[in-house]
Structure formats: structure tokens, C-alpha cells
Amino acid sequence: MQLTLITIALILIKLSSSQEHNNQKFAISIERKLTTDNCILGYLTVNGTSICHTMELPFRGNINDISSIPRGKYDASIRTDRKLGWRIELKNVPGRQNVQIHIGNYTADITGCTLVGKTVDTDNCSVGQSKDAIREIERAFVNFKSDLCLECVSSPRYELEVEYK
């Protein structure tokens, strides 16, 4: 009887902490560190843990396809369609659509989005090992969501938030 009560108490504690975790946001922060005439370079963190470098075009009046994303917080979702594979799409960027965080290495790969990479070349405005960087972000997302519920990984109840600083 005592063992059963202890088991039930442990299950309730685990469910309670799981519920708290499920209400948390998967928070991405992009800290811009270097602005040149050709690009903006920075770092991407997930829930406070540094993951990779970022690269964007310079700010050009928030014009679609040629400008970096304005500072602020944006809700986001995961996209996996088409040739770009797993990526994050920002919602409610003023005056813009299809703004994403995705793979790529050079400014020519950017159409108003943010590229990620494990290495950076500040002289040539490029990031390297982009696929490794996006896989690490994806792995962090899956790990964040799968503590108790593997089928919940793509559930809409899990909120993503991206902050550009």
C-alpha cells in the first residue's frame, strides 16, 4: 500500500512538472553583433543556450526580400515543406510574409530571412555548416517537446517565439 502511494505521488509530480514544461515557449533569441554594408552577423540562442551564428541582410526600411527583420518578438511555426526542409517561419512581421530562419551560406541566399551556420566569415559575409546549425536547432526543439509526449512535437499548443535584438 505504501509503495503504491509513493508511485502515485511520483507520477503526479512528474505530470505536474510536465504540464509546466508544456506551457513554456520554445524561445529563440537573435543577438545582432556586427553590422556591415553587406550583412548583419550575430548569434542564435535557444532558451538561453547559444546554438549558432546568424546572418541577415542590412536593414533597408523593412522592404520585403532585401531588408533584415525589424527588432521585436514574433510568434513562429515550423515548416518542413519544399526543398528548404525544416525551418522556422515568423508570423506577423509587419508588411511581410514568408520570413524564415533557414539554411544558406551567402548573402545571395537571403531574401529577407535569417541564415544560420556553425561557422562565420566576417570578411566575406558568409556562414558555414548551415545544415549542421539548422539540425541543432531542430534537435533542441524536438528535445524540448519530447520529455513526456513524443507525438506532441508538432502540436500547436507548443509556442515558438523568436526575438530579434
Question: How do the helices and strands line up, and which of them pair or pack?
Answer:
Elements: H1 2-22, E1 26-35, E2 40-46, E3 49-56, E4 72-79, E5 87-90, E6 100-102, E7 114-117, E8 119-121, E9 126-128, H2 130-145, E10 160-164
Parallel strand pairs: 1-10, 6-7
Antiparallel strand pairs: 1-2, 2-3, 3-7, 4-5, 4-10, 5-6, 8-9
Structural description of this entry:
It contains two helices and ten strands. It has 165 residues and is an alpha+beta fold. The chain has one domain (22-164). It has an eight-stranded mixed β-barrel. A two-stranded antiparallel sheet has the order 8-9. The radius of gyration is 19 Å and the shape is globular.
The value of Rg in angstroms is 19 Å
Q: Kindly state the number of beta strands.
A: 10
Reading side by side through the largest sheet, how are the strands ordered? 1-2-3-7-6-5-4-10
**Unreliable residue stretches:** 3-22, 152-157
- Count of discrete alpha- or pi-helical segments spanning 4 or more residues: 2
Tally of discrete structural domains:
1
Cα separation of the termini: 55 Å
- Shape verdict: globular
Structural class: alpha+beta
Helix and strand string, N-terminal first? HEEEEEEEEEHE
Mean pLDDT: 83
Biggest sheet details: 8 strands, mixed, barrel
| Helical content class | 10-25%
Range of strand content: 25-35%
